[in-house]
Amino acid sequence: MFDYKLLSALAAVVEQAGFERAAQVLGLSQSAISQRIKLLEARVGQPVLVRVTPPAPTEIGRRLLNHVQQVRLLERDLQTLVPALDEEGLPERLRIALNADSLATWWAAAVSDFCAEQHLLLDLVVEDQTVGLKRMRAGEVAACICASERPVAGARSVLLGAMRYRALASPAFIARHFPEGVRADLLAKTPALVFGPDDFLQHRYLASLGVDGGFEHHLCPSSEGFIRLTEAGLGWGLVPELQVREQLERGVLVELLPDKPIDVPLYWHHWRNGGQLLGLLTDQLVRSSKQWLVPWKQP
Fold it and tell me: Which pLDDT does position 136 carry in this prediction?
């Protein structure tokens, strides 16, 4: 049987980024918080925190945090029915994994009003859309946005739409590498920009053009930095259409192969036993995402 006082101490240390602030939030001494963490570690038989600044959860610590989060969501539903049970009135916190391009474009507008209305705080984990589901599989997050339709056990998935990417480069880059015009077979011979080692969007794009094999590329794990590097002419890249409309209008970036975009489906995954709040957030995302995402057509 879980001792939720111990789990609450763990959640407070991680959420407040330290033992001192956690003690203040829970109305305890710092020594009491430390003792609760030590007792929790003794009961699970392994560390739940890495003692760095700020403290970080271990793998088992993340799983315990996710459990605490699901319990809180269910308690929130009960408090809605019985308001007298809500003694603290603290905001709810959701840990969600999503891709950097969604975070840089449509996500904030889609959830801003909802978070304010529901007194909700977000703990966002940035992952490539092709691997975000591993966070749910590991029990680290309550929900995620990823490109995979199939949910993990105990979760549901719903299609939000697709993010459209276009192959872009600066005018100077095009003049330097494609003086006689852009050809698909030449793309693999010119420097590209890739978000990270888990990003295979460029590979898929080149394969769709009939170009196989490897290609030269820079790695840039920043959505905003990716745009800056493309504008500076370091390489060509697949960029969300939502993010560069102004640059396209001003001619700062130019589409390499017009009318050949590539769409990436985005599915919202969430735990089945996540309570009413996750259900409401799901409804909000399904309604609002249509403003920014394009309909997904299965290849």
Answer: 81
